[in-house]
Amino acid sequence: MKQLLRGLFLLLFCILTLGFFPHVVSRVYAATTTSISTNLSDYGGSVPQYKKFELTFTLNTTYTNPFNPDEAQIDGHFTSPTGKTLTQPAFYYQNYTVSGIGSSETYTKSGTPVWKIRFSPSEVGTYQYMISDKTGTITGASGSFAVSSSVDPGFIQVSTKNGRYFEYTNGTPFIGLGLDISWWQQENQRIGFYQYYLNRMNEYKANLARVWMTNSGINQTWIMSVQDKILGADYNLEEAWAFDYILNQAELKNVKFLLTIDDVNQYGSNWGDNLYNSSNGGPCSYPACIFTNTTAKTNQRRLFRYLVARYGYSPSILSWEFFNEINEMEWITSNWNWQDAINWHQEMGQYVKSVDAHKHMTNTSTGSFKTFPELYNALPEMSFGQIHFYYVPGWQWAISDPAGQDMANLVRYYSFEVYSSVTNKPSIIGEWGLVNSGWTDNTTYLNSDDKGVHLHNGSWAALMSGMASTGLSWHWGYHKTHDTKWWQHYLALANYFAGIDVTNLTVLKPVNVTFTFPAPSGGSAPAPSPDNRAAAFTSTNSKLRAMGLKNTNNEYIWIQNSDNTWWNYVHGTAVSNQSGTVSVLGLVSNASYSVEWWDAYTGAITKTETLTANSNGTIGLPITNLSNDLAVKLIKSGSEVPTVTTVPFSHCLPLGDVNCSGKVDSNDVLSLLPIYGRLTPVPNQEDLDDSGKINMIDLSILLRNFGSVKP
Questions:
Q1: Residues 59-65, mean pLDDT to the nearest whole number
Q2: Of 385, 436, 487, 505, which has the fewest CB atoms closer than 10 Å, so is most exposed?
Q3: Tell me: the pLDDT tens digits for 103-132?
Q4: Same domain, 51 and 125
Q5: Cβ–Cβ < 8 Å for 55, 36
């Protein structure tokens, strides 16, 4: 009888175990690697600081869902030369090859799925690593690698010198210059679409792009999606591979991505095709449920872990942006609770920080022309603030029209609002531009503004109002339409701001701007924040506007003919040149200043002189016949003049590999041919002979090396 009872007990135990804890019996012991390799040969045996160290391996164990860390929690553990321990998740990977870049891309699987761990070391010396799963150390998965010093400045973080700005790990300031490039629009032009923008950004020294994913909509072919088939499973490894390629190009072009992970519209107009919708097998019967439902949050964490594992190695990820305009869900869901959304951002921010060995910044974005300090200011998980606004004809619910007819004035207004609301953190304008009453591109105005007057004035106004970046223009398509006239504005700003020390950099109170706009006709607008700062400028001409920044010794000033607006330009309204004196107040009495006069359109110094402040600490800047705008630097004599360090341009090898893929192939030909004959004002990959023009010599070099691979 005892033997019978013992047998029944064992049978019952097995049934319960199989039924309720299948992972317990599927594998008790840690896995063993069946193959493992590294990418050390890419660097000649020593990984440069902040470059990708990659482990590729296979295991003797299979998983029902390799995207579920409750089943397949595989991690890489790294010990630095100084003894710091860091953990970076592994991810499931399928390799692909691509053809037709520049025309119609075709993706083909290459090999079988493997596991990868990507990690970027920050210290020089020898790192130790080992790989584990849920049950312990994986056999055959440990080792070491050497790290050599490099000129790479590292990852971007909030500045330790001035919390209003960003800086690299090595302390070099990062001033963002860029635009939104939110989606690729056509699935057969994923890489080719981004190649154009990354090439142009590199040529004109733009360095920041806001790039979107949607990870809740089903089969979203027009935009990058990792999760678009099954919630929490069967991730889209083809599109994930395409973004590997795009991110690698961004690294080569010195462009950073503000990576937006999901969009509020997937919970509005696209809710019927949303993976979280209970009608599609998801856990939620209404959109706002995603902030409180346990199953929804489990799948969100699962996705974040995968994205961090796959892309978190890269210094070209500026920040993980959880949502585009998440506050707009208020208008599209029942059971809305803003505090639930705030709590969700705190929870997910903490989770992402816990799995990201490289500690990227985390943020979100909001719309409605508002600043939301209860989110950005209150949560340490929100690394910086963000605001979106547009010129919208007849918009009643915020300051927009007619104020936005003078874009410098409108940008300064909203920059000050977010700067005053989100204290001791950087802030950026994540979207802005010219739209129509239906909230689509205002094609009439955007086509007519071929010189990018609104882009120029708004970009200078944002930086001179304390934003950590230019406003990120929503109109990426028109950058291509007006190629290269719009791009030149980034080059001018990059030249001017290069070498500026952000330590103690503060915003000066502008002159000849609108501090209080009237409420829109038929609508309402919140009261503006009061500007109680001391006057920094005076002007003898009310049409000479001045904005600026100041640090311990120097001042940086933008002076605009306020009639030089995009509105006047597109309507053909004549603008009179303006003259007068803009006086700079608050300088050191009787001190001498080196004054640099800059062309704000070319980013070149036009004149240098020495001026002395009077006994009241004032210098008068004479302005004569100003048709558009100019910039000035006042550098106190005896203070260190900023020096600009130029990193020498180098072509990817073998020469002719213009898309830096590691091989000279047909994709490089397709990249070169559309721009044949174009002048290149700055060095770039396509100008293989560095002549300043894409010519027959460049094509000859490419064809001579066709088929060559990276040594």
A1: 94
A2: 436
A3: 999 999 999 999 999 999 999 999 999 999
A4: yes
A5: yes
What's residue 1's pLDDT? 43
Q: Which positions ≥6 away from 85 have C-beta within 8 Å?
A: 77, 78, 79
Question: Are 99 and 136 within one domain?
Answer: yes
CA distance 101 to 524: 49
- In this prediction, residue 656 has a pLDDT band, given cuts at 50, 70 and 90, of confident
Is a pLDDT exceeding 60 seen at residue 15?
no
In whole angstroms, give the CA distance from residue 104 to residue 117.
31
- Strand pairing report for 604-612 and 554-561: unpaired
Q: What is the pLDDT of residue 657?
A: 80
The answer on pLDDT for 27 being more than 70 is: no
Let me know if residue 708 belongs to a domain: yes
Helix runs in 220-364, H state only: 237-252, 294-311, 338-355
* Cα 277 from Cα 653, distance rounded (Å): 48
Which residue range(s) make up the domain with 631? 511-636
User: Which residue, 606, 636, 666, sits at the end of a domain?
Assistant: 636
Task: Please state the pTM of the whole predicted model.
Answer: 0.88
**φ/ψ bin of 200: left (φ > 0), alpha (ψ from -120 to 50), beta (otherwise):** alpha
Q: The domain spanning residue 530 has which CATH number? A: 2.60.40.1180
CA dihedral 611, 616, 618, 622 (to 10 degrees): -80
The answer to whether 72 and 133 have CB atoms below 8 angstroms apart is yes
Q: Among 580, 605, 636, which residue terminates a domain?
A: 636
In whole numbers, what is the pLDDT of the chain averaged over residues?
A: 91
Is 69:129 a contact under the CB 8 Å cutoff?
no
Residue 277 DSSP label: B
CB-hemisphere CA count at 13 Å for 692? 1
E-only strand ranges, 170-239: 173-174, 178-180, 208-212
Could you tell me if residue 341 is inside a domain?
Answer: no
Report the pLDDT value the prediction gives residue 2, as an integer from 0 to 100: 39
Burial of 281 (0-12, 13-18, 19+ CB in 10 A): exposed
- Please indicate, yes or no, whether residues 630 and 554 belong to a single structural domain of this protein: yes
> Looking at 521-655, which runs of residues are DSSP E strands?
537-539, 544-550, 554-561, 578-584, 592-599, 604-612, 619-626, 629-636
With 0-12 / 13-18 / 19 or more C-beta atoms within 10 angstroms meaning exposed / middle / buried, residue 386 is buried
Kindly list the distances between the CA atom of residue 473 and the CA atoms of 208, 299, 629, in Å, as whole numbers in the listed order: 11, 32, 20
Q: Which helix (H) or strand (E) holds 119?
A: strand 114-119
Residue 229 lies in a domain: no
End-to-end CA distance of the chain: 75
pLDDT digits (tens, 9 = 90+) for 166-215: 999 999 999 999 999 999 989 999 999 999 999 999 999 999 999 999 99
Task: Count other Cβ atoms within 10 Å, centred on residue 282.
Answer: 20
Quote the CA–CA distance of 265 and 352 in Å, as a whole number: 23
The 10s digit of each residue's pLDDT in 67-79 is 999 999 999 999 9
Q: What is the mean pLDDT of residues 609-629?
A: 98
**Within this chain, do residues 56 and 77 fall inside the same structural domain, yes or no?**
yes
Question: 513 near 409, Cβ under 8 Å?
Answer: yes
Report pLDDT for 686. 78
Cβ-contact 667, 190 below 8 angstroms: no
Residue 678: its pLDDT value, please? 60
Residue 322 confidence (pLDDT) above 60 = yes
Q: How would residue 156 be classed by pLDDT, with cut points 50, 70 and 90?
A: very high
- CATH code for the domain of 112: 2.60.40.10
Binned at pLDDT 50, 70 and 90, residue 653 comes out as confident
Is residue 228 one of the residues assigned to a domain? no
> Are 261 and 324 within 8 A, CB to CB?
no
